[in-house]
Amino acid sequence: IVSFVINENGEVEDKIEVLSKDNPCKGCAKAAVSVVANMDNWTPAMVNGKPVKVQVSLPIRFETKDQISLK
Questions:
Q1: Share of the chain above pLDDT 90, in %
Q2: If I label 63, which of 20, 23, 39, 47 is the partner at 20 to 30 A Cα–Cα?
């Protein structure tokens, strides 16, 4: 899971964390952070008609070539 904050302007804030019950490969974690950091702006969350910051938890799953060949 990649956890990050979308600010009032719909932008991803700088602090992006990779949370996992397993230890993800370093390359996978870096790729997940890169994907989130380079996303287009989001539509900001709204409370009472005003944009607000919101914490997002986005599941991202990677499969390695070894996992694919075992299927």
A1: 63
A2: 39
Place of tokens 């539509």: 43
Strand residues in the chain grouped as ranges (E): 2-6, 17-18, 45-47, 50-52, 54-58
pLDDT, tens digit (0-9, with 9 covering 90-100), for 15-38: 999 987 777 677 888 999 999 999
Residues 6+ apart with CB under 8 A from 64: 25
Residues 6+ apart with CB under 8 A from 7: 13, 44, 53
What distance in Å separates the CA atoms of residue 4 and residue 13, rounded to the nearest whole number? 7
